[in-house]
Amino acid sequence: MSILQSSGLLEHLSEFTPQAMERWISAALAEAAALREHDDLLYPDDMERRSAAEQLHAAWGRWAREAQSLVDRVSKVRSWAEPIAGLDSLIEAIGRAQAIIRISPTMMARRLEQVRSGEVTSVEEIRRELQFSHRR
Questions:
Q1: Within a 10 A sphere around the Cβ of 56, how many other Cβ atoms?
Q2: How many CB atoms lie within 10 A of CB 18?
């Protein structure tokens, strides 16, 4: 179970002090660090490891949604005059997670297969096409 799965609870907490915010942010960053430890499993070459990769990919998606909920909650109640430790790092981690979840392990496997089978367009071909269309 994700530490952040309890972030739905945050909406109902009347007292959300800067210290509490920092603790929740630290917990979210710790969970992201734990997930990051397994990032080498995200895009496996063999089919046997694809299930674990899909589960890790899904975990990153859940983490990103829950962490964004936390940022939204912090943004509602915080005083912008005082900094909240870790908030910028959390926002950056959310962006990284969102980038990860844009490409699923299955999609990456298909793209790698296209590369292996030669179904690619070289950079030079793209440059030529862009220059040609620009001159029109």
A1: 19
A2: 15
| Chain mean position to CA 9 | 22
Tell me the domain boundaries of the chain: 3-135
- What is d(CA 48, CA 10) in angstroms, rounded to the nearest whole number? 39
Predicted TM-score of the model (pTM): 0.80
With tokens 């089919």, the residue in question is 47
CA 22 from chain centre, in angstroms, equals 20
Segment 60-118, tens digit of pLDDT:
999 999 999 999 988 887 766 678 899 999 999 999 999 999 999 999 988 888 888 98
Which token pair is 7? 């972030």
Q: What angle do CA 54, 58, 60 make, to 5 degrees?
A: 120
